[in-house]
């Protein structure tokens, strides 16, 4: 009788591994500006608990040290590693490989609408320029207070959702209007304006509404809900934009 070899038993507590194909967009600008993006494929040994960020680390540390991407906290707080994964904007540190059907190649590319610096890194300056323009800070008048500015729970709840923004640009770079219109503020800037417009302690709401009433302001929003779907923090972005529009109309009358 022919003996049949048995697969080695998995030890208790051992995490099963699998091989995933990572298809990563590469781009390295040259002096003449003639460089074009290309796709590179890597085979990565992974585990069920691994995220896309872990796979990118393995590629950079073990296969190709020239791969370039941003990351920092690796816990979905800093927003540094926003990228397009299988055609959708996500944070690489929050996206598990096993949830992406690892039997097929996983595509990773930079977010859209912002200039690519190298590989998965984009120039965030246009994004932050819009953010700065809406004055993302508390504006008050009068003398400096001698104690904290009090606010009720209901007043805080009015803008609580939009305080969760981590400036990852996932919402803004998922917006079709932002892709084609370099002057549009974008969802993230409007969300951060919302955070202060509806803050009972702030006195700069009229100024922000005036800025956002510009032809490239909130009225460019086409309500496609891409931004809401892309937000890794679960912010109701489209709802916030509509509330800013409503505040603008109310103020006009």
Write the layout of secondary structure elements.
Layout: E1 17-26, E2 38-47, H1 52-63, E3 82-85, E4 88-91, E5 106-109, E6 116-118, E7 121-122, H2 125-133, H3 153-157, H4 176-180, H5 187-197, H6 205-212, H7 226-230, H8 237-252
Parallel strand pairs: 1-5
Antiparallel strand pairs: 1-2, 3-4, 3-5, 6-7
Describe it.
The protein is of the alpha+beta class. It folds into two domains: 17-122, Ubiquitin-like (UB roll); 125-139 and 155-252, Fumarate Reductase Iron-sulfur Protein, Chain B, domain 2. The protein is 28% helix and 15% strand. The chain has eight helices and seven strands. It has helices at 52-63, 125-133, 153-157, 176-180, 187-197, 205-212, 226-230, 237-252, and strands at residues 17-26, 38-47, 82-85, 88-91, 106-109, 116-118, 121-122. The protein has a five-stranded mixed β-sheet, covered by helices on one side. Strand 6 (116-118) and strand 7 (121-122) form a beta hairpin. Helix 5 (187-197) runs antiparallel to helix 6.
